[in-house]
Specification:
Elements (H helix, E strand, L loop, with lengths): L21 H34 L56 E3 L11 E8 L6 H12 L13 E3 L7 E6 L1 H9 L11 E3 L2 E5 H6 L8 H16 L48
Parallel strand pairs: 2-3, 2-4, 4-6
Antiparallel strand pairs: 1-2, 5-6
């Protein structure tokens, strides 16, 4: 049997593999080390992303920002405002509209009711009577009470006690104060040749005609409520009855004389409803021709 043939039917093994060169072995080692390093770096990156998502750390490109809202810096000693919780607060209620001025009827029946409360049958003083046109929404006795308070006020024409008034309800009155609608007031004033245009008050003879519009609404030129302007109406028109004529503004910043037609403008003066000041000074001004 030849030596090159395997005994008992076995194939003879070929020659043993040649050993690898040292250079190739070095290349394989370096490749394995790079693979291991890349694997370590990849694991570290995954761990960093995980920790960053847990603790709110950002800055890794391509990852969403998982942080909560950033607190606004506050001044020293201040605390940041708490974040609102629960349902949104309801909006504040809408304020009610401003009240509109009292409606004033332009005309009335031309008949009057005489005030009887507070009437003095006898006594000293200049007798006056208060009348209110029917159906205009003004109570005669309440109006008379206000007029009495004006006529007897310490800054009114009774100042110093030289002039005294007494309310009556009969024909003994030498002064009659009538509150009437604009049309009726105009008709009264027209008997004295006056054109009051549905806006102004007047005095004709013994009668003072108070325009209901002025009594209820006051005047846009007067710096005060209608209740105070009523004092100016009565004091001005009773001043005419006492013999006083119109006066002009004495100077800028001065109190307007009660005999000044303040409804036509103050001309630098300050609104005033009384003949006398709190210190007893009479508010006067230049005569109006």
């Amino acid at each position: 049997m030849s030596s090159t043939t395997a005994r008992h039917g076995e194939r003879r093994a070929g020659p043993p593999p040649a050993p690898r060169s040292r250079a190739r072995a070095d290349r394989d080692g370096r490749r394995r080390r790079r693979i291991v390093a890349a694997t370590v770096l990849l694991a570290a990156g995954v761990a960093s992303v995980y920790l960053g998502s847990v603790h709110g750390i950002t800055g890794i490109p391509g990852l969403p920002d998982r942080r909560g809202p950033v607190a606004t810096p506050t001044a020293a000693g201040e605390s940041p405002a708490p974040r609102p919780t629960g349902p949104a607060p309801a909006p504040p209620p809408t304020p009610p509209p401003a009240p509109t001025p009292t409606a004033v009827p332009e005309s009335g029946p031309g008949t009057f009711t005489v005030a009887t409360a507070g009437v003095e049958g006898t006594g000293a003083g200049r007798p006056y009577r208060v009348e209110v046109e029917d159906g205009i929404g003004v109570d005669p006795d309440e109006a008379a009470e206000q007029i009495t308070a004006i006529l007897t006020h310490e800054q009114g024409w009774s100042h110093g006690g030289d002039i005294v008034f007494r309310q009556v309800a009969d024909e003994s009155a030498t002064l009659v104060i009538r509150i009437a609608t604009p049309n009726t007031s105009d008709a009264i004033c027209a008997t004295g040749g006056l054109d009051t245009h549905g806006e102004l008050n007047c005095r004709v003879g013994r009668t003072v005609a108070v325009n209901l519009r002025r009594w209820q609404l006051g005047s846009p030129e007067f710096d005060g409520p209608p209740e105070e302007y009523r004092a100016l109406i009565i004091n001005h028109e009773v001043g005419h009855w006492l013999g006083y004529g119109h006066r002009a503004c004495p100077g800028p910043g001065e109190a307007a004389p009660v005999m000044m037609q303040q409804i036509k403008g103050l001309h630098g003066c300050v609104s005033n409803a009384w003949p006398y000041g709190p210190d007893g000074t009479f508010h006067d001004g230049p005569e109006v021709p």
